[in-house]
Specification:
Number of strands: 2
CATH architecture of the largest domain: Up-down Bundle
Structural class: mainly alpha
Shape: globular
CATH superfamily of the largest domain: GntR ligand-binding domain-like
CATH topology of the largest domain: Four Helix Bundle (Hemerythrin (Met), subunit A)
Low-confidence stretches: 1-6, 79-89
Radius of gyration: 19 Å
Strand content: under 5%
Helix content: over 70%
CATH class of the largest domain: Mainly Alpha
Largest sheet: 2 strands, antiparallel
């Protein structure tokens, strides 16, 4: 790509440099990356830029971020014959994308309804929990911690409906919903137009609609939140299917 036509964003530059090190063997499968703080100092960028770059590489299936254990380079499956590099990433993503698409359909039905009911039934105690989670997502520098707060935010929407059947349904799907939310965050960061701040704003707007007891706005904000990821999924699919030189 001609950088004079579209200058790279900082996180894209960091992402490409780390990926180049992997391609050239300077970073081997199993190698542990430096901490976010150290990488930010090394590249002379903010920590949020490093988190976006790492999340993008995670979305491509190139990194494994372990809770409390650091970030590691993942091994690509051995190829029986030379293939275009983009095809390797497409193969890694294909199975995850199909599963995520199905989960997004479930989330669209379930969570838009829960958001509306939460706006109608929420209590002051519910609002206090939402505010705590939003604050944690704003202030933390730990991507895994932020991810957990994200999951808890969506779970709290189910709790705020005060409908035991809906809550039971949400809990029965908790593992799958958790995985889809992790992929959702990765997709947000992978999209060229996305950033940690924009993802945070999505959650704030959903919270504000619930706090204001605006059922229509809560439904619309949750629908938009999920639709944006679906759009990125479709764009990524088109990217991999595009003719390659």
């Amino acid at each position: 790509m001609n950088n004079r036509q579209r200058p790279l964003k900082q996180y894209e530059w960091v992402m490409n440099d780390l990926k180049k090190q992997m391609d050239e063997g300077l970073l081997q499968p199993g190698d542990r990356l430096s901490s976010v703080v150290d990488l930010a100092a090394e590249y002379n960028v903010g920590r949020s830029t490093i988190r976006e770059a790492l999340s993008a590489l995670k979305a491509m299936g190139l990194l494994d971020i372990k809770q409390g254990g650091g970030t590691f380079v993942k091994a690509l499956p051995a190829e029986p014959e030379p293939v275009h590099p983009m095809q390797r990433y497409a193969d890694l993503w294909e199975g995850r994308a199909a599963s995520l698409r199905h989960l997004l359909e479930v989330r669209r039905v379930l969570e838009t309804g829960c958001a509306a009911l939460a706006a109608h039934h929420r209590t002051d105690e519910d609002i206090a929990v939402f505010e705590r989670l939003i604050t944690e997502m704003k202030q933390s520098e730990d991507e895994h911690f932020i991810e957990q707060a994200d999951v808890q935010f969506h779970q709290q929407i189910g709790i705020a409906t005060h409908n035991p059947l809906l809550l039971e349904l949400m809990e029965s799907l908790s593992n799958k919903l958790h995985e889809s939310m992790k992929d959702m965050r990765a997709l947000w960061f992978y999209a060229e137009r996305s950033s940690a701040e924009r993802l945070l704003q999505e959650h704030i707007r959903i919270y504000e609609a619930i706090a204001n007891q605006d059922t229509k706005e809560a439904t619309a904000r949750m629908e938009l939140h999920i639709s944006k990821v679906e759009q990125v999924l479709n764009e990524k699919k088109a990217e991999y299917r595009a003719p390659r030189p």
